[in-house]
Fold this sequence. Notes:
The structure is a single chain. Helices cover 48% and strands 13% of the residues. By secondary structure, it is of the alpha+beta class. The protein has two domains: 6-278, Butyryl-CoA Dehydrogenase, subunit A, domain 2; 282-470, Butyryl-CoA Dehydrogenase, subunit A, domain 3 (Up-down Bundle), CATH 1.20.140. Strands 2-1-10-11-7-6 form a six-stranded mixed β-sheet, with no helix packed on it. A hairpin with a 6-residue loop joins strand 3 (61-63) and strand 4. Helix 11 packs antiparallel against helix 16 (447-457). The model has no long low-confidence stretch (mean pLDDT 94).
Amino acid sequence: xxxxxxxxxxxxxxxxxxxxxxDGKRIxxxxxxxxxxxxxxxTQAELYDIQNNPDIKDTMTFISEKTSERIGASYLIxxxxxxxxxxxxxxxxxxxxxxxxxxxxxxxxxxxxASFAASIDxxxxxxxxxxxRLVRFYEYARENDLSFTHTFVNPQSNRSKFAFFEKDVTNxxxxxxxxxxxxxxxxxxxxxxxxxxxxxxxFSAPGAxxxxxxxxxxxxxxxxxxxxxxxxxxxxxxxPLSTRFxxxxxxxxxxxxxxxxxxxxxxxxxxxxNDFYVKGKFVPFTLHQIVARQVVKTEFLLGxxxxxxxxxxxxxxxxxxxxxxxxxxxxxxxxxxxxxSEAEAxxxxxxxxxxxxxxxxVAINQFQEQYPRFTEIIQLLGASGLMSIPKESDxxxxxxxxxxxxxxxxxxxxxxxxxxxxxxxxxxxxxFGSRQTLYxxxxxxxxxxxxxxxxxxxxxxxSLNLVHELMNIxx
Length: 475
């Protein structure tokens, strides 16, 4: 089956009997018609249609060596630097459709699965590990263009350094090993887009202390006993961004869920659970996708800031120029780090082209710090204008002409100025916008831990040797 269309995606999701709970009620009927999900599902469908655009098929797809069909390029395991560039172009083409606001568009999870399939060397020869199942499932997923969410974050019940002494009662764990498969019980956090994908990929984050918490598997989203509990919806019908790009975040509850053996990639192996993350391709592959998207998101932020400057004619002020330049510096640095990671990519012993990790770690850690500042800059530029944003209905009312007159911008109508400022408000100040800021603050983990990783991995030999040379000390 080739890359699917938007209608095929929607039909598949509506056909599932996934248990999704919102506002204390289970969602019944077609989820693509529900007010909290219809916008993001429609946008996601548009992404699949872009993937099928014949004018850009060489960017968005590649030829399967198994079926000779065109399949999504986000499933591509790169074997050359050209493949890495192709992946980046595909990711950024999709990201431009959402301004980079959809962190869990299908290319992210497809990248995760591709990284797992490219890391089977970590599983080979290890106890309770099944690399052949993982490869078989990867091929099945890409040939059928499956959509995924994932979960690996443990509940926040106790995150002290000595939490492992406490008997676990919350984190999803294996409670039985049966002839049919594993039985899993407990919960995991933060499955973004939970309930609107074909599958959920479940795996352990590094640091598991018990075998029952060390696993990796994928199951259909409507597997019996699997529940997705949604947070409050941030969709606001008067907001231009949340109505299209609001990705629901969910808690995932496993109530004695049966995971068939053919879907289990590894289990009861703490070493592999850690090595799969540390030694596998998960980090470089996913960081490459994330930073590619974040570059587009920064371009979008810069565009919003620039439009505000033009619309109220404040470009002559030095402090305004300085603020906009902050975003420019961030954008150009992110692009440079992304391209550097590709330039320094190397073929590993398995024949996979792996982008350099260090510049990608630096890029995402920088973005965690800069994104809140970028949104603050937009707030500072917009100032009181971000609170003077009447609704569309106000412009259609008897006082509409007055509003249009008094809220006009520099060489633009009031209605057009308000539309821009409402977009800026939705991006930086609404519930949707605030969630975006929190999301980017912690994307890929705590920023302090990522900075520690950069410190620990960075090769300082050249710098230290330079100091020795300049001090006339032999290294």
